[in-house]
Design a protein that fits this description.
The chain is of the alpha/beta class. It has helices at about 5-20, 20-25, 50-70, 95-110, 130-140, 160-175, 215-225, 230-260, 275-285, 295-305, 325-335, 340-345, 365-380; strands at about 35-45, 75-85, 115-120, 145-155, 155, 185-190, 205-215, 260-265, 350-360, 385-390. Strands 1, 2, 3, 4, 5, 6, 7, 8, 9 and 10 form a 10-stranded mixed sheet that branches.
Length: about 425
């Protein structure tokens, strides 16, 4: 047995001892403002001929990493595996064979309980648009697979790709509850090694990992009762920074013990239902999200995050996912938040248009215009943005969505501007 394997096993045994039931009884009550780890994401350079072995190796690291973090009182919600662009390892396959391969990969993800990202279509300008059609077929025929499509890069907005992304969204609308679009995003200027799905991918040799947080509760605690913006910003930098450094310390340990390279942490304060970034912003502005002051609050969050001197990756900005946040879904249903408002907030922070519900009769052309606005903003400010839009078949303005995904809440559909 190799020396590093012996050490890995010994350290894992020690960690498991630390988290035994007897030790667990002595733990102090958890801090309600402590962030969760939304995802530990492993990046692998998938080889179709040996992917099962690669997944097994990644799962060994991910399970160990989860145990390490849980021994330090961090709750880990998901473990994930992300690959290079799927077109690189489906070369030589017919579309039917590619879909069959991903059905097998999807079954493996369900069995091993990891979320899977297969990277983007159209990573490079000039890639064949047929990649988008194949991607739509893959996502329609799987449950656990996420993917994206690149609509802008250093060369600017790629308008044929914008149209391709709109076509994918309309195809995915025709799935149960129109829910498959939750697993797809159009991405612009999003770098490799982003741990958040569905925009995650890499372009290197793999054998790396990154961390994503769920820390809207941390923002809410920092902003509660803050007398001014400067105090709010400093409180957030200090509070979230303390947690981020604790995560980084354990990530460095995992790096050393496993040989998987730690690539950083995405400090975007992701919400989840009642752990609401919308409520956190309202703690600061004392106004409903969408009112004057929301843009300033968004800029404050991003400025605080950028001041935290840990190794960062991914978006590391403010996330405003409408259907993953109960307060944001409420404000959307009230008509206080619009697509244009979300784009304006993205100019000073965030991730773009995330889990935005749309009427089912929206056309490809209308989707193109929305995606194009996001991509143009990303290129203008040279920042990572994405669009995860959820048109709902058969639903009209005034109707409620009927999603049943555990990460989604439902909201009232709003009319599109004429």
């Amino acid at each position: 047995m190799r020396l590093d394997t012996i050490r890995f096993s010994a350290v894992l045994g020690a960690v498991l001892t630390c988290t035994s039931p007897a030790n667990a009884q002595r733990k102090a009550p958890s801090d309600p403002a402590k962030p969760k780890i939304r995802a530990i994401t492993a990046f692998i350079n998938l080889d179709r001929a040996q992917y099962q072995q690669q997944v097994a190796e990644a799962m060994k690291m991910l399970k160990y990493a989860r145990t390490v973090f849980e021994s330090r009182d961090f709750e880990v919600e998901t473990i994930r595996i992300s690959t290079q662009p799927f077109s690189e390892y489906t070369k030589g396959l017919t579309p039917e064979q590619a879909v069959a391969f991903f059905k097998d990969y999807d079954a493996l993800a369900a069995k091993e309980k990891f979320a899977a990202s297969i990277g983007p279509a159209l990573l490079n300008a000039g890639d064949p648009l047929a990649q988008a059609d194949l991607l739509a077929d893959i996502l329609k025929n799987t449950l656990n697979i996420n993917a994206s499509l690149v609509v802008a890069g250093e060369d600017g907005v790629r308008w044929p790709a914008v149209g391709a992304a709109a076509r994918v969204m309309k195809k995915l609308e025709d799935t149960e509850h129109s829910q498959a679009n939750f697993k797809f995003s159009a991405i612009a200027m999003v770098p490799p090694l982003t741990p958040f799905f569905p925009s995650s991918y890499h372009t290197g040799f793999g054998h790396q990992f990154a961390i994503a947080l769920e820390s809207a509760n941390t923002v809410a605690a920092a902003f509660q009762g803050a007398p001014d913006l400067a105090t709010a910003k400093q409180r957030l930098t200090d509070r979230l920074g303390n947690e981020a450094f604790a995560v980084q310390t354990q990530a460095a340990r995992i790096d050393q013990d496993t040989g998987w390279t730690y690539m950083g942490i995405d400090l975007s304060p992701a919400p989840l239902k009642n752990v609401s970034i919308g409520a956190a912003l309202e703690n600061l502005t004392t106004q409903p999200v969408g009112s004057s002051g929301t843009l300033t609050a968004a800029a404050t969050v991003t400025a605080a995050i950028r001041d935290i001197q840990v190794k960062q990756t991914g978006y590391s900005g403010l996330m405003l996912p409408i259907l993953e946040d109960s307060r944001l879904a409420e404000r959307w249903s009230e008509g206080r938040i619009s697509i244009d408002a979300l784009l304006s907030y993205s100019a000073v922070c965030g991730t773009g248009l995330d889990t935005v519900p749309l009427p089912g009769d929206i056309s490809e052309q209308q989707l193109e215009l929305i995606i194009g606005d996001m991509a143009s903003l990303a290129v203008k400010w040279h920042k990572p943005l994405s669009a995860r839009l959820l048109p709902v078949a058969g639903k009209n303005p005034g109707d409620s969505t009927a999603f049943d995904d555990p990460y989604l809440v439902n909201a009232t559909l709003q009319p599109l501007k004429p």
